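Example 3.2
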Amino acid sequence: MRPKFFNREHTRTAHIELDTKRCKACWQCLENCPNQVIDKIDLSWHKHALIVAPQNCTGCLKCVHSCPYNAYFKLDKTKERTLRQRTLLFRNFVINNLLLFSGLAMVLSGLILQVGFHIGGQVNSQNFGNDRQIRAFDTKKTIWNLNYHDWSTVHKVVIVIFALLMVYHIYTHWNWYKGVFSKRLIGKNIQAFTLSILFLLVAGTGIIPWLIDLSGNTGNLRFVLIEIHDKLTLILIIYLVLHLIKRIKWFGTAYAKLRNK
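Structure, written as tokens:
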């Protein structure tokens, strides 16, 4: 069993908070607490009260009134709610910005690889009896002092980062997604849903060919997925621009609220 003093909730309940620096270990709070919410650390070199059963606290405030050192104080519910809202806003602001910049970096690096280094052309394939596109690249060329392999690494890393952020974004907004489905509001949010699906498809069709390449497989599936990835990226750019136009007011409002302490 984990020792009580390792409990992360040892300084607060839903009603009160304990400042352990003010506590002088007089133990009056323990004597007055009717619900055994409070316990103590009673070592010769370290003594103070601590919260061990925050779920049992009913908000009677006997600990607040009995403490002669003002180590306990009542939580301001409005302040707590505002703090939670501000924390949520900050988290969403950071995640949305990271998604924005990683998405733009993914699109930009992909376009540089496709347009900047791609040679193209057609070659007759005896195995398949028709023409197929050559996916050849000028590996000696550099763009912004980075060659093809450098940009390829950047693109792959950005795809992984973006995919992780997208999974986290969907996880934190899962209730919204469920609400839209349950209330049949997909039609009113079709742009957001389409963008989410496009992001996942672009990330998936970018990561899977990479994994195929790492496995040493040079089959046609890899090239097909890369072609799909390239085409979906062009559609993604359009939806990304539309989404930014629609959300730019939110970014401005969120930034203004976070600046006002």
